[in-house]
Amino acid sequence: MNEITTSDPVLNAILESESEKSDVLAQICARTRAETHQKASVKSLKEIAEEAKNKKNPTRGFARVLKEKMAKGHMGLIAECKKASPSAGIIRQDYDPAMIAVQYENAGASCLSVLTETGYFYGNNEDLKIAREACSLPVLRKDFILEPWQVYESRVIDADCILLIMAALKDQEANDLVELARCLELDILVEVHNEEELNRALALDVCLIGINNRNLSTLKTDINVTETLAPLVPPDRLVVSESGLKTFDDIRRVQSIGASAVLVGESLLSQQNAGAAVRNLLGIA
C-alpha cells in the first residue's frame, strides 16, 4: 500500500512503531493521523472549519432515507464504492465511481458508501465527489475519522454521513465528533464489533448502529457477530449489518434478527455489473 512520511519526527516514530504491529486497525489509524496532520499544516483547523460552515448546499438525509426504508418494511442497502481493501487487495482495476454509483442507484440501493482512505483502500476525496454528483443518493464517507479536522473536511467534500469506529476512539473523542458532526448537519454511523463497543456506542446520541462482522484487527469475518449483537440494540436505533454479506440468504438472515440495513461492497464490486449484483443481493427479479 501507499507509504507516507512526514517532516514531524514524532509522527514518523508513531508510523514506524505502528507499522510493526499485526493490528491492521492500529496501522491504518496511525497513517490517518499522520496524513491529517500533514493536511492541517496546509489548511488550518480554523480555515477548514470556516469553509465547512459556509457550505450552502443541504445534506441529503442519509439516516432519513434508511428510516423510511425501515418504516416500509424494506431492507436498506448502503452500496459501497471502493477500489481495494486490506483483505482483498485490488477489487476493480477499472474503478469508476460515477458509473458504479449510477448502477447502484438504478438497481435500488438506498445510499452510497465511498472509501476515501488513501493508503489501504486506494480511495480519495474526489471519488466521493464524483460518485455523489453522478446520482441522487446520500453518501457515507467511509474513512477512519479520528480528528475534528476530518469532520469539517467531510462537510467540505459534500459527504452526508460520516463513520465513527468505536474500536479506534475513546468515549470523549467519539462524543465530541458526534456533536461536531451534528452541528454540520452530518449524519453519523457508529460502528461496533463486540458488546463492549456496542454499550459505548449506545451512550452516544446517534440512531445508526453499524455492526461490523469483520474484526478490524485480524480482518476475519463472521456474520454471527450481527446475530449476537443486533438483539441487544434498542428498537429506537437502526441496525446496519456490515461485511461478509454476499447473498440474498445472508440479507434475510441478518434481517430476521433485527438488521434494518446492510452495508455491502466487495461482493458487489467483484462482479462485472454492479447493478445486477445489487438486484441479486436484494432478491429483485
Describe the structure.
With 285 residues, the chain is α/β, with parallel strands linked by helices. The chain has 2 domains: 9-42, no CATH class; 58-282, TIM Barrel (Alpha-Beta Barrel), CATH 3.20.20. It contains 13 helices and 10 strands. The strands form 2 sheets. Strands 1-4-5-6-7-8-9-10 form an 8-stranded parallel barrel, surrounded by 6 helices. α11 (248-255) links the parallel β9 and β10 (261-264).
How do the strands and helices of this protein lay out in sequence?
Blueprint: H1 9-19, H2 24-42, H3 45-53, H4 62-71, E1 76-81, E2 84-85, E3 89-90, H5 97-107, E4 111-115, H6 125-133, E5 139-142, H7 148-156, E6 161-165, H8 171-183, E7 187-192, H9 195-202, E8 208-212, H10 224-229, E9 238-242, H11 248-255, E10 261-264, H12 266-269, H13 274-282
Parallel strand pairs: 1-4, 1-10, 4-5, 5-6, 6-7, 7-8, 8-9, 9-10
Antiparallel strand pairs: 2-3
Helix pairs in contact: 1-2, 3-7, 5-6, 5-13
In summary, what is this structure?
This protein is of the alpha/beta class and 285 residues long.
